[in-house]
Amino acid sequence: MSIKYFLASSLLIMLLIGCDSQKPKVEAIDHQSKTIQCTLNGKPFQMDINQGSLEGNLYIDGKELRFELLKFSNEYQIIIRFDPEVGQLKFNQANNQLFQLRYGQERLEPCTTQVKST
Q: pLDDT (tens digit, 9 = 90+) per residue, 74-98?
């Protein structure tokens, strides 16, 4: 029984290592200048982030706001002056999902990222 257990455990470990090597590599958000576009409350939402900076500009409803990013383990919290219509915002490390916490409810919106040439 212990040989079967050992073989099964070894196979599982090799399988997990193989899966991890296939995982896409995610670079730091400030590695390149980029524009992240999403929809927020049914309206276009855009963030511009410059290479080497965790600060940027946010555009929504014809307004331009400065923001800062705080990095957590696998997401970025967007720090802006609080607006109840916007709520709290964060997005994932791959820059393809925006999370909005507003009026006690969390919404998830897909995003696209366009790298800017410098």
A: 899 999 888 888 899 999 988 899 9
Task: Compute how many other C-beta atoms are within 10 angstroms of the C-beta atom of residue 26.
Answer: 12
Instruction: Label residue 40 exposed, middle or buried (CB < 10 Å: 0-12, 13-18, 19+).
Output: buried
Locate the DSSP E strands across the chain. 34-40, 43-49, 55-60, 63-71, 75-79, 88-92, 97-102, 105-115
Radius of gyration (C-alpha) of the chain in whole angstroms: 19
User: Length of the chain, please?
Assistant: 118
CB 54 within 8 A of CB 63: no
> CA–CA separation, 12 vs 28, rounded Å?
30
pTM greater than 0.85 = no
pLDDT per position as a tens digit, 5-58: 655 565 556 555 555 555 555 567 777 899 999 998 889 989 999 888 889 999
Backbone angles phi, psi at 115, to 5 degrees: -80, 135
